[in-house]
Write a structure and sequence with these properties.
The protein has about 290 residues and is an alpha+beta fold. It is about 25% helix and about 30% strand. It contains 8 helices and 13 strands.
């Protein structure tokens, strides 16, 4: 087990089992062939062909606007969810974008993003307590709630969250820091965006294409995060070298994508350097190109 194994774990897919979902000729998602065939039942929303899926002509830009597309596609997604063809709706909406930073074409329920292979963005925050020498650095690690529907009990970065529509990245960080760790806005504003990571991973629901904004925050020894919204079981202040050991030697201690965030932090802080035989592959793998 080593760092590169986590990158390989997060970048496994067979694109031959999917069809591109195109809007205005550009790829906005990837839909598994079985679900694509189900979409033939909704010609008012989708045009399904052997090689691709696109919006029905009345919904294609510039004939419609974002609100109309969101409403029409949302009705289809709700029907699919009622039939168990996509996960249960979350009531939280994500922007359907071509890539990070591009303008949205519509909003879609978070539950359906992976089923449609939509770019799924969010952030992960490294909370570090420094005590002079680098070898004395400590990192706050969250443990996910045992009753959480996904990866219960796994270790996680201090704060993390998806990026819903209608919020700026900083607003999202402030919101999640308050909800997950009881962190006041005045402190959360000190979180610094430091890098962006990406991966593509085939999962039972579809193709997860994820862009993670990584943030760092230096915390005073007097601050202790506390669970607020029930997403987190508790927090532990680990020595940085123990966090590195867990990621290096264990596949499943952390939720799978949190490993990438820790590896990126180890590189940026000089703890993982060019003397490692996989240094180039690790750096390249942290920012994989999506299909």
């Amino acid at each position: 087990m080593d760092f590169l194994d986590h990158i390989h774990h997060c970048n496994r897919y067979d694109i031959s089992g999917f069809r591109p979902f195109r809007i205005d000729g550009r790829i906005f998602g990837w839909v598994r062939n079985g679900l694509a065939d189900e979409l033939r039942r909704f010609p008012q929303a989708f045009r399904v062909e052997a090689e691709q899926i696109s919006l029905a002509e009345p919904l294609a830009p510039p004939r419609s606007d974002i609100a109309t597309r969101t409403e029409q596609i949302g009705a289809v997604v709700a029907q699919l969810a009622s039939e168990g063809l996509v996960p249960k709706l979350r009531g939280e909406f994500y922007a359907v974008i071509e890539t990070l930073g591009s303008p949205p074409m519509l909003d879609i329920d978070r539950a359906a993003t992976t089923s449609f292979g939509i770019v799924n963005s969010g952030f992960h925050l490294n909370g570090v307590v420094r005590n002079g020498a680098q070898e004395d650095d400590r990192m706050w690690v969250a443990q996910r709630a045992f009753d959480k529907s996904t990866f219960p009990g796994k270790l996680d970065n201090m704060v993390a969250g998806g990026h819903p529509s209608g919020l700026t990245p900083q607003e999202n960080v402030i919101k999640e820091c308050a909800e997950e760790a009881g962190m006041p806005e005045s402190l959360a504003r000190a979180a610094r965006p430091v890098s962006v990571l990406s991966y593509a991973m085939e999962v039972p629901d579809g193709l997860r294409r994820h862009a993670m904004l990584a943030y760092d925050i230096d915390l005073d020894a007097g601050f202790t995060p506390v669970p607020v919204d029930g997403e987190v079981q508790g927090f532990t202040l680990y020595p940085a070298h123990e966090v590195a050991r867990l990621v290096r030697t264990e596949l499943d201690a952390f939720k799978y994508n949190c490993n990438l965030v820790v590896i990126d932090w180890l590189i940026r802080t000089g703890r993982l350097g060019p003397d490692h035989p996989d240094y180039l592959a690790i750096n390249q793998g942290l920012r994989s190109i999506w299909p």
